[in-house]
Amino acid sequence: MCQFFSSTFIILLGGFLSLVFARQKKFSKVIAVLFLSGGCLLGLLDAAAKLLNPAGASASFRYLDLFFLSFHVDGLSAFFLTAIFAVSLMAAIYSFHYMENEEGGIKTGVNYFFFSVLIASMALVVTAANILSFMISWEMMSLSSFFLVIYSHESAENRKAGYLYFVFTHVGAMFVLAAFGLIYGHTGSFEFAPMAGVPEAVKILIFVLSFIGFGSKAGVFPFHVWLPHAHPAAPSHISAVMSGVMIKTGIYGILRIYAILDFHTPVFGYITLIAGVISGILGVVYALGQHDIKRLLAYHSVENIGIILIGLGIGMIGAATGNPLVAVLGFAGGILHVLNHSVFKSLLFMGAGMVLHQTGTRSIDALGGLLKGMKITGTTFIIGSLAICGLPPFNGFVSEFFIYMGSFKAIPVGSISFAMSVFAIISLAVIGGLALACFTKVVGVVFQGEPRTKAAENVKENGLAMMVPMGCLAAACVIIGVFPKVFIDMALTAVQALGLDYGRVPVEPFGQITGNITFAALLFFVVVLIVMGIRSIYYKNKTTTKSGTWGCGFTQPTVKMQYTGSSYAGSILEFFSAAAPLSEEHPPIKGRFPLKTHYHSHVNDIAELHMKNVVVRPVFYLFDKLRWMQHGDIHLYIGYILLAIVLLLFFI
Amino acid sequence: MMFNPVDIILSFVLLSVLFSFGTDRVLILIKLLGFQGVVISIIPFFIGHDMSTGGTVFTLATLVIRGFIIPLSIFVAIRKGAIRRVVEPIVGYHASILCGLAVIIGATYISGRLDFGSVSGFKLLEPTAIALLVTGMFLLMARRNAIAMVIGYIMMENGIYLVGSGLSVGTRHIVEFGILLDVLAGVMIMAVILRNIKQTFDDVDTALLRTLKD
User: Fold this and answer.
1) Does B53 touch chain A if contact means CB atoms closer than 8 Å?
2) What are the sequence ranges of the domains in chain A?
3) Where is average pLDDT lowest: A26-35, A61-70, B92-101?
4) Which residues of B touch A640 (CB under 8 A)?
5) Second label for A416, Cα 20 to 30 Å away, from A67, A505, B48, B171?
6) φ, ψ of residue A235 in degrees (nearest 5)
7) How far is B151 from chain A (nearest CA, A)?
């Protein structure tokens, strides 16, 4: 535990020192990056060691003579810690060159300060062993990330995004608090210990409340509304951390509550699975319709949270129906996908950050042909895209394959489980296909073809500190994919911490199958590379002509003769228009000499749309009616306080 | 019937409370505040805590600050700021006195129901503390002159101090010192705000603040 606390201390110290030396911008940045990455590395080693040689550790502190703040590391915590520290380490290094264009040392210092608080509080959230320490760390995490979201507070859009995030995260925290209140009310203890002798109805209520609360952090549909606003607003390394690991603390919360409740009913599984399916499919459909690359990635987080929840749902169904193999496959797949998603999603955000940093635009349809100038960014982005689509030999495949296998094994369990698992399999397939469509759109439009605007012309990549993390994460995608055994074992250690006490279920054969498939896919890639090598040898001394992409033999091709992202995604979006209504603006072409025209489309998020009508309007209406209370007379304000005191003293 | 000094002192405090409800002059309020400060500060000597040297010094320091420094500084503020001397009531004086009686009765009733965990044997300690708190609140509410409001605030703090001095916990001095710092900070902040109000509206009538509402 000592190593864990020293690593969080180093991280916090780094942020604090960066704030202190904020005036010497370069120095403060160097200090922050060194301390943050050093602390993360230390924490990563510690967590990985705990995961490979399972050993629990706990510590508790007395606070104000009133209660304890206690922390405990078990397999589940160690697994999440590994993801948190790994991604934060990469993001900290990445930030060194990413933040170089920013003027104003104070702003950078403040950014690093809140970044360090965010990392430390995430680590504390997943190790908290009682309600109090959990809520304190949870709030610290929410607030620090809020300040990071409004980093570029000059733009009104970003302020709005920050406000939205603030509201969502606190409404979510309110639900979590309600769930904790129920737990405390029935057990009389703040500890996170398995509950016994609590009525089943209460347990279901606790689960639903905490699912809503944690779901709003994780970005489960329909509580994901803040996500596509907040992620693009934050600096890219922060988006990588927020999307990569911070939203996963919501998943951790759901798992932890599940372990505490110690109550296995298929209802939990159905709730989780259905929420997962809806988030997964709608997440990727909305992603397809986005024009902003970071917004698109944010919607993919919703999708991947959906996949994780499908895995957990299958696991819960397996646990409830007494089917250890299904349970372990589902949980292990879901938990491993947490790590995998954090790796490739942070990689993709870093790639998007590089594009934004070098071109100054996030609009997909303004870019094009970037692969020519940005070899490393482009290649790693493609690797990340393949991984997020769940294609072998990359890591996304491993976890999704586990969830698939769990779903197939759940088919013969029972009639409802049959329907559920078929539902899960079909939707996983749909999600995978749509994700592939979405990333062919991104890679095809952004990195291939010809530059569509001035901003995308002659773009080079630079900043070693930005490229190294991307290379490391891309390598991690391949390593987890090709040698999944170690990582599957890690996920199994985490599953054991859920307290299902099945002993070790023989899942090695499944790991073996997965490994074989990814190995075969790797061989395929190697063969392709060899063929390409042979080709280049053959063509060495021959003349080859290079012409523009989509040139098609035109003598005067223009960059407008290319597929755009909107046109590529258009036909798929039409199919989903019930769930993703498209609003288009396109003045028609009239007459022989038509005037200039334009096309603008926007996919409406139905959750956002309905939330506005159903929740926001009534709340505004209600509080508008209460405006008379704020009359500006100080004497009556004091009267309110007096009234409250009198009521409390006399009647309570 | 045994007279104990604490209850006698506290009965004076209760009388001063009634007096402060009925007075129309800020200067009288300041004098009452000084009186209360002195009287309340010497209570720990009678209450039967074993007084160490540090405790004695601390209690004397409280006496000086509460009894003299704060009232004097308010007095100086009035002098320098040429602030009007009338408390400008929202609730009339007769109604105020009636309220004062109600406050004392209510406080006695409440103190029977509350358990502060304080030293027993002093009948008036808790009622007086609550009465002071509510009186402070009342002055804050029912007087428009900002100085009267500051005095109300300090009276509230006196009440809190009285609660604290009755407590028989080991960390009493730390708590009281915290309260004292609170008061000082509060008074300083109020001084700044007063200056601003005076500069903006050329008066310290707090009802004028209403115009700041958006």
Assistant:
1) no
2) 610-651
3) A61-70
4) none
5) A505
6) -60, 155
7) 14
Residue found under tokens 């919360």: A253
Q: What number is the ipTM of this complex?
A: 0.76
Interchain CB distance below 8 Å, A635 and B144: yes
Which residues of chain A does B112 touch, with a Cβ-Cβ cutoff of 8 Å?
Answer: none
* Residue range B5-19: mean pLDDT, rounded: 86
Residue spans of alpha helices (H) in A152-265: 156-187, 200-218, 227-233, 236-241, 248-261
Which pair of tokens denotes residue B120? 């027993």
pLDDT(A347) > 90: yes
Closest CA to B35 of B60, B4, B14: B14
Q: What angle do CA A430, A432, A437 make, to 5 degrees?
A: 95
Residue identified by tokens 């809140």 is A114
Angle at B55 between CA B50 and CA B58, to 5 degrees: 155
The DSSP bridge pattern shows strands A67-73 and A57-63 to be: antiparallel
The strand pair at A67-73 and A582-585 is best described as unpaired
Q: Is A65 left (phi over 0), alpha (psi -120 to 50) or beta?
A: left
User: A153: which DSSP letter?
Assistant: T
Largest Cα separation within chain B, whole Å, is 60
In chain B, the number of structural domains is 1
Q: Which stretches within chain B are classed as H helix?
A: 5-22, 26-47, 53-64, 70-81, 93-113, 125-142, 146-166, 172-201
A632 closest CB neighbour out of B90, B144, B213:
B213
Half-sphere exposure of B160 (CA within 13 A, CB side): 18
Sequence-ordered alpha helix ranges (H) in A411-456: 415-442
Question: CA angle, A227 as apex, A427 and A167 as ends, to 5°?
Answer: 130
pLDDT per residue as tens digits for the range A395-451 = 888 899 989 988 988 888 777 888 888 989 999 999 999 999 999 999 988 888 888
The parent domain of residue B205 ranges over: 5-212
User: pLDDT tens digits for B105-132?
Assistant: 888 888 877 766 555 567 788 888 888 8
In percent, how much of chain A has pLDDT > 90? 37
Mean pLDDT of B137-156: 84
Tell whether B213 lies on the interface with A, counting CB pairs under 8 A.
yes
Residue of chain A minimizing CA distance to B141: A635
- Distance, in Å, from the CA atom of A174 to the CA atom of A505, rounded to the nearest integer, reads 38
Could you tell me which residues come within 8 angstroms of residue A124 by beta carbon, excluding any fewer than 6 positions away? Answer: A8, A71, A133, A136, A137, A140
Cβ-Cβ contacts under 8 Å, A650 against chain B: 110
Round the average pLDDT of chain A to a whole number and report it: 87
Q: Which residue of B has its CA nearest to A640?
A: B141
Judged against a pLDDT cut of 70, whether residue B214 lies above it is answered with no
CA separation for the pair B112, A650 (Å, rounded): 11
B137–chain A Cβ distance below 8 A for any pair: yes
pLDDT score of B52 more than 80: no
Using DSSP's 3-state secondary structure scheme, residue A444 falls into: helix
DSSP B169: -
Please give the Cα distance from A13 to A7 (Å, whole number): 10
Cβ of A630 within 8 Å of Cβ of B142? The answer is no
Chain B residues in contact with A639 by the CB 8 A cut-off are: 141
Of A231-245, A385-399, B197-211, the range with the lowest mean pLDDT is B197-211
* B192 inside 8 A of chain A by CB: no
Structure tokens of A556? Answer: 């005067």
| Distance between CA atoms of residues A350 and A94, nearest Å | 8
Angle at B52 between CA B51 and CA B58, to 5 degrees: 85
- Reported pTM: 0.81
List the 610-639 stretch of A: residues with Cβ below 8 A of B: 630-636, 638-639
Q: How far apart are CA A29 and CA A20, in angstroms?
A: 11
Residues of A within 8 A of B207 (CB-CB) are 633, 635
Q: In the structure, what pLDDT confidence band is assigned to residue A474 with cuts at 50, 70 and 90? A: very high
Mean pLDDT over the full length of chain B:
79
